Amino acid sequence: MSDNHRAGLHDRLRAVRTVVDGVRVVTVHGEIDHGGKDTLSRALLTADGTPTPQRIVADLSGVTFMDSSGVNVFVTVYQQVSAAHGWLRIAGAQESVLRVLQIVGIDTLIPCLPSTEEALSA
Question: What would the pLDDT profile of 11-46 be if each residue is shown by its tens digit?
Fold first, then answer.
């Protein structure tokens, strides 16, 4: 089952939502910075700010840059999903983005997997 929804467009960030077997998969392309954080947040959460479905995979294979704005979005979404007894997984982060996640310790909080397929089956 797949439900496509284009979540937003920023000059440097694009996020597309699909649903695969009840898991929201958000495929992100571009740069996650202050200007794109709202696009990312809208793609991961619903209009009222809740994470439905409560299982989310963020495919970052197309992300070339991420600063603390993206880190903050992921921490917020993780907290909300966890409170709803769900989970958030990050998939396919390029080396530079993965390094940011590792430096701030997000990878110890949110599983970071090499691919969307692995994140869906973990």
Answer: 589 999 999 999 999 999 999 999 999 999 999 987
Place of tokens 């996020």: 15
Residue 101's alpha-carbon distances to 4, 60, 108, in angstroms, are 27, 11, 9
Q: How far is CA 108 from CA 6, 64, 73, in A?
A: 30, 21, 16
Q: Are 40 and 12 in contact (CB under 8 A)?
A: no
Q: Give me the phi and psi of 35, to 5 degrees please.
A: -70, -20
pTM attached to this predicted model: 0.87
In terms of DSSP bridges, do strands 23-32 and 5-10 run parallel, antiparallel, or are they unpaired?
A: unpaired
